[in-house]
Amino acid sequence: MAAREPIMIDSFPMSTPAPHTPPHQAELDLQTVAEDQIEDFERVVTRGFHSDFHGDEWVPERKSYVPGRWFGFRTGDRWVTTALSFPRRMSVPGGMVDVAGVTAVTVAPAFRRRGLLTAMMRHQLTTISEPIAMLYATESLIYGRFGYGSLTRHLRLSGKTRELGFLPEVDLGQGSVDEVDLDHYRTVVVPLRASLLGTRPGHLERDDVWWDGVFTDPERWRDGASAWRFALHFAADGTPDGYATFRTKRDSSIADGREVQVSEIDATTPQAYAALWRWLLDLDLIRAFRRGNAPVDDPLHELVANPRMIKTELSDAAYARIVDVPAALGARSYTVDLDLVIEVVDDFLPKSGGRFRLQGGPDGSGVTRTDHTPDLSLSARQLAAIYLGGTPATTFARAGLLTEHTPGMAGLITSAFGSDPAAFTTDFF
Ligand SMILES: CC(=O)SCCNC(=O)CCNC(=O)[C@H](O)C(C)(C)COP(=O)(O)OP(=O)(O)OC[C@H]1O[C@@H](n2cnc3c(N)ncnc32)[C@H](O)[C@@H]1OP(=O)(O)O
Fold first, then answer.
1. CATH topology for the 155-315 domain
2. What value of ipTM does the predicted structure carry?
3. Where is this region: Disordered (predicted)?
4. How far is the C-alpha of 386 from the C-alpha of 297, rounded, in Å?
């Protein structure tokens, strides 16, 4: 059979694709992101999470761009890995501490499992100026190897509103709740939330840019629900003392029913908190509620007469990695007086580990490196998990993962590091 003639397509000009280096031949170089590379980088991040790129979603992040904090591996003219961090401040008992809010961590599929995340983590943790890095993990098994521990846990609450009558003794106060527009809400909620920052550890300070991000609400993020709506509670004298951000969504599982989805809710008094919940649960046409991120000690269960009607799921929330032990432990106060030596075994960043004398109490603390015999040894990951009382040191002791050299130390640390109210983080990134 005669060989076929090649088909000539000379009437259509064919553009030649740029040469593409196959992944196994790629030479990789860790680089920081220059300002004119930001959008390109964002597109790679978005693809790393299997999403489509929409520039409007990145506006707040872009405004928070700090040269040097956005970086990744490049080959040729393309990013194949990404990571970045924002400077944030987090409430801790007795004060605030600087944290690096880590996010946008991706490795392109063709380059996974060859140590690039590990190299990025090492670069990031050794270059940030904050004593603590913090993140939300897409998969809870990823970050422990780098010394991250579960800083906070949270509850997912849901249920049918008509089954959630309050106990008769619940005090709803003499004030009232009203729905307001975004502009009104923002002028009230910004100072109100700032006044509540110190009442619970784990909260992050928000600047104007962060608030812009909180209120960014493209329709594609709503999954069929309404835009954000906003409610304020006004005390008897008319002062706003509580707030709630929520959406409503048609709930196909209930005929003619809708669900109220509560994003944030907080108040300066128990009466305002209860009144806000009552208002949300009593909305006409609403038959179900959902709150995806509630503190582990949220009082809603105590307000209702039939708490079993609240479906409650416990999940890991924020993770933390302590890179500067004296600065992190010295930034907070402790519930009881302490003077002990903690040994931190840090396999990933050995220079961050060592023995530390912690002298502290309700009024503050001081931490110094020491070579004294430790009272207790734990890993960097466990230190992060006990830092705000999220996991009791005694739980690690019972798991056989923490060594008490002085009997009773795990119990003492559990009491001293514990927090009431429990640590809770509202800002997801
Ligand atoms: C804060 C945030 O942004 S969270 C977002 C994290 N990113 C994502 O989930 C996006 C999709 N996933 C990815 O991009 C990548 O799979 C990453 C970033 C999670 C991992 O990147 P990699 O470059 O493959 O990680 P790396 O090769 O450094 O892995 C180091 C170790 O962790 C393990 N590991 C890393 N990720 C995973 C995972 N998702 N599941 C199981 N094991 C994992 C590796 O097997 C390896 O183990 P080993 O040391 O025993 O060999």
1. Aminopeptidase (3.40.630)
2. 0.97
3. 1-22
4. 17
Chain region(s) in the chain for CATH 3.40.630.30: 23-130, 155-315
Q: Is 106 annotated as ligand-binding?
A: yes
- Summarised one tens digit per residue, pLDDT across range 115-150 is 999 999 999 999 999 999 999 999 999 999 999 999
Task: Dig out the tokens for 80 from the structure.
Answer: 């194949």
d(CA 17, CA 202): 50
Q: Which CATH architecture has domain 23-130?
A: 3-Layer(aba) Sandwich (3.40)
Q: Active-site residue among 41, 143, 246, 348? A: 143
Question: What percentage of the chain has pLDDT greater than the value 70?
Answer: 96
Q: Is 101 in the pocket of ligand 1 (CB under 6 A)?
A: no
Contacting residues for 299 by C-beta, under 8 A, at least 6 apart: 270, 273
Instruction: Give the mutation target among 117, 146, 150 for probing the ligand 1 site: most ligand atoms within 8 A of CB.
Output: 117
Residue 429 bears catalytic tag: yes
Distance 18 CA to ligand 1 centre (A): 29
Q: What is the DSSP letter of 320?
A: E
Looking at residue 281, its amino acid is L
Residue 250 Cα to ligand 1 middle (Å): 37
Q: pTM higher than 0.90 for the full model?
A: yes
- For the segment(s) 325-417, the CATH number from 3.40.50.2300, 3.50.50.60, 3.30.365.10, 3.30.1050.10 is 3.30.1050.10
82 lines ligand 1 (CB under 6 A): no
User: pLDDT digits over 245-279, tens only?
Assistant: 999 999 777 766 899 999 999 999 999 999 999 99
146 is catalytic: no
Q: Which residue bears the tokens 């940030």?
A: 128
For residue 56, what are the CA distances in angstroms to 27, 128, 206, 256, 282? Answer: 33, 28, 20, 34, 35
Query: Ligand 1: does its nearest atom lie under 6 Å from the Cβ of 142?
Result: yes
CA-nearest residue, atom 9 of ligand 1: 138
105 is in an annotated binding site: yes
Q: Is 159 annotated as a binding residue?
A: no
Q: Where in the chain is the domain with CATH 3.30.1050.10?
A: 325-417
Measured torsion, CA atoms of residues 127, 133, 135, 140, in degrees rounded to the nearest 10: 100
Q: What pLDDT does 8 receive?
A: 52
C-alpha distances in angstroms, 405 versus 238, 346, 381, 397?
56, 18, 19, 11
43 is in an annotated binding site: no
